[in-house]
Each structure stands twice: as structure tokens, then as C-alpha cells.
Design goal:
The protein is α/β, with parallel strands linked by helices. It has one domain. The chain contains four helices and nine strands. A seven-stranded mixed beta sheet has the order 3-1-2-4-5-6-7. Strands 8-9 form a two-stranded antiparallel sheet. The protein is globular. The structure holds iron/sulfur cluster (SF4). The site of iron/sulfur cluster has 14 residues, from loops. Pfam families: Fer4_12. Its cofactor is [4Fe-4S] cluster. This is Radical SAM protein. It comes from Kordia aestuariivivens. InterPro entries: Aldolase_TIM (IPR013785), NrdG (IPR012837), Organic_radical-activating (IPR034457), rSAM (IPR007197), rSAM_sf (IPR058240).
């Protein structure tokens, strides 16, 4: 349990619709918020889902030589802050060039506990705040306009245009028995 992360899913092959460049995605399980029309409601229940060894996720990230970064979404990543810090420390020690983008339902100023502060040290861009469906403007790489795109380092500063005007796209992954939509939908596409 100690060296595992409770995940909802992974996108190990990478996607181009959750941040600049091709990115590995980790969706964690469990969120203390319950935003109306959350685009990932299956990630809300705080329950054990796929307990996945940190080591295996690190290896999977390091074995993907096409990605430019990692996106962590949910569920609520800060519920597993210390485990995600460990994962990012291990990855960035070997590939410091990878960028890290994290979506959280907490506002930045509420992330004031020690483990949250430690996790923030590994994050280049934080998109904060709960999703409010009526404020979904369909443009920026965030669910709704109350949320903020916060550049915690300069690593992705050159990509500001992507975050503010070009980032909204969807990708559909079709597998034998399922179809998954990745990306941030506009309001009318939300369920
Ligand atoms: S914070 Fe994010 S994952 Fe949690 S309920 Fe809101 S939209 Fe869904």
C-alpha cells in the first residue's frame, strides 16, 4: 500500500490533448469535491480502485521515449500528494526535461499543508479550483473560467498560447470493448 498509487486509469501511450506536446497521463482515484457535471465522475468515489506500484508507473513513464511531459488529473491528485511526489522525484531524477501539469479541485492558496507544498515543488503548471459548468467557456485548457492556470516554473512559459487559446481538443481512444474520450470538453459535450 505504501508504495502504490490508487489510480483510476493511465494513458501510457500518451495524448496530445491534456497539455502541450505528447503527455503521459495519470488519473487518480478519489476526490473530496463533487462538482456538478464533473467530466470524470467515476474518479470521485474515495475507494480503492487500481492500486498500482509507483515503481511500475515510473518505469512505464521512463520507457515512453515520445512524451514531453506528464499530466496528473483525477480524481484529486493532492489526496495522494506524498506518493505522487515520490513518483515525480524518481522520474525527474532521470528525465528532468519532462514537464509536469496537474489539475486540482483545491485553490492554490488552500494547498498549504506540508505534503501539498512538497508536491508543488515538482509541478510546472497547476490548474486549480473546482469545475463550475456554467463558467465553461470552451476555450482555455481548464474546465471553467473560475479556475486559474498557474505557472509555478518557467518550463512551459513559452506555451502560454496553448493554455489560453489553443489547448481545447478531444481525442477518442477506441479499444475492443470501450471508447474513451480524453481532453476537456466544451459545455454542450459534458455529461
Ligand atoms: S474537482 Fe475535478 S475530479 Fe473532483 S469533482 Fe470537481 S471536476 Fe470532478
Amino acid at each position: 500500500m505504501k508504495d502504490t498509487i490508487n489510480i483510476l486509469d493511465l494513458c501510457e501511450s500518451g495524448t496530445n490533448v491534456l497539455g502541450p506536446g505528447k503527455r503521459y497521463v495519470i488519473w487518480v482515484q478519489g476526490c473530496p469535491f463533487n462538482c456538478e457535471k464533473c467530466t470524470t465522475p467515476e474518479g470521485i468515489p474515495i475507494r480503492l480502485n487500481k492500486l498500482t506500484p509507483i515503481k511500475s508507473i515510473v518505469e512505464s513513464i521512463l520507457n515512453n521515449h515520445e512524451i514531453e511531459g506528464i499530466t496528473i488529473s483525477g480524481g484529486e491528485p493532492f489526496l495522494q500528494a506524498s506518493k505522487l511526489s515520490k513518483l515525480l522525484a524518481d522520474v525527474l531524477q532521470i528525465k528532468p526535461e519532462l514537464s509536469v501539469l496537474v489539475f486540482t479541485g483545491y485553490t492554490y492558496k488552500r494547498l498549504d499543508w506540508a505534503k501539498a507544498k512538497d508536491f508543488l515543488r515538482y509541478i510546472d503548471v497547476l490548474i486549480d479550483g473546482q469545475y463550475i459548468d456554467k463558467l465553461n467557456n470552451g476555450k482555455e485548457l481548464k474546465g471553467s473560467s473560475n479556475q486559474k492556470i498557474i505557472f509555478l516554473t518557467d518550463k512551459l512559459r513559452d506555451e502560454e498560447d496553448y493554455f489560453y487559446t489553443k489547448g481545447r481538443n478531444l481525442e477518442v481512444i477506441v479499444e475492443a470493448s470501450s471508447q474513451t474520450i480524453i481532453g476537456i470538453p466544451s459545455r454542450q459535450l459534458n455529461h
